[in-house]
């Protein structure tokens, strides 16, 4: 865990603004994960800023999110083949920290489950995602930085 | 997926009002699913409008929610018998789209798990629920339309 | 279930203030469960009021939360040994009821899963937590009372 998120015992004091940011961040993840699970790579890329950086446990180092799309799509397809069916993400346990520049430091858990054709869902693994979200001029949020950690690989 | 929810890449711009609606919708589902899992059919019916329409994968076509209650109760009881214990719903991944008439188009995932007596919980399936929620005069929300989709039956 | 939470069919009418409280309560649980799963007992104790009371299915009766810490830590360590790896909590299905004195009656579900080294996550059980949260002078929330119920032990 980063010091930024765990070093302070105090979560930010409550306010209407925090509620708005928290709802928007929850909405962002529900939206982005549905796009990811639908393999809509173009819309998915659109949820990252142009120069977004991505750090994944399956990649040797940080990479530009848009350049990493091909890698992401290939890894996802291989996972679905191995799982014998569709893969889905379930996001929760969201922590949101507003930053002075208006961006958000977030951390959430993403449960990844497979649904083989004709069978029940099976949890494959749980990731922790640490993002920096920035608000675009249109008012929507995009990820400027994402670091994905898998606890079971730690 | 409906065009309304996936056709636009942009989620609604953030605002305090969106936060209020998002919190109320989350609260509605936590409340309604607890009622459902407690088999409190009268309170459950009360979470739908009088003329609400229900589309379930276990039904041949759309039906009035209040008329479908008997079906729902029977299917639920059969499922609990097969599962050998209690069934519970866990709702998440909520998408909320305010509509011009003040109602809400929502989509969420509902994970259904069984807890057999003496055993650990087992995930049975994951549904996607697409609802239209309307606000009643008392200020509470009710479902006016619900379409339940099971990904593994698609 | 307590009469307070289930006796009324009507959830509280929506408002900006409810949204703020709901977001803060969600944030409180995401924060507190991460602290618990990281075995940071000092920070964890800090999420309870000085005189908080804890009722756990593994304890013979209600106890002061701070005094129960040792018990909690020992039970947690024994569980991790049995599970052969880390244990994590996933909180959801949150119900929040503001009370006249400014405190919150909450109920949520906590899914507890184990991740054995080298294996995938396995759901162990699901608890229901019924809390009273109070706001401290600093603006943060703390639990003044927690009752944990396990459905599968009922």
From TrEMBL, chains A, B, C:
<protein>
    <submittedName>
        <fullName>Nuclear transport factor 2 family protein</fullName>
    </submittedName>
</protein>
<dbReference type="InterPro" id="IPR032710">
    <property type="entry name" value="NTF2-like_dom_sf"/>
</dbReference>
<keyword id="KW-0614">Plasmid</keyword>
<dbReference type="InterPro" id="IPR037401">
    <property type="entry name" value="SnoaL-like"/>
</dbReference>
<dbReference type="Pfam" id="PF13577">
    <property type="entry name" value="SnoaL_4"/>
</dbReference>
<feature type="domain" description="SnoaL-like">
    <location>
        <begin position="21"/>
        <end position="147"/>
    </location>
</feature>
């Amino acid at each position: 865990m980063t010091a930024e998120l765990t070093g302070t015992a105090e979560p930010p004091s409550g306010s209407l603004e925090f509620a708005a940011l928290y709802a928007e961040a929850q909405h962002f993840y529900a939206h982005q994960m549905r796009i990811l699970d639908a393999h809509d790579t173009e819309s998915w890329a659109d949820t990252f800023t142009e120069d977004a950086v991505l750090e994944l446990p399956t990649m040797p180092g940080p990479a530009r999110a848009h350049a990493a799309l091909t890698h992401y799509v290939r890894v996802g397809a291989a996972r679905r083949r191995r799982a014998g069916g569709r893969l889905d993400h379930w996001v929760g346990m969201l922590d949101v920290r507003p930053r002075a520049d208006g961006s958000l430091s977030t951390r959430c858990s993403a449960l990844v489950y497979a649904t083989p054709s004709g069978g029940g869902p099976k949890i494959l693994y749980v990731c922790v995602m640490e993002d920096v979200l920035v608000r675009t001029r249109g008012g929507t949020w995009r990820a400027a930085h994402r670091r994905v950690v898998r606890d079971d690989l730690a």
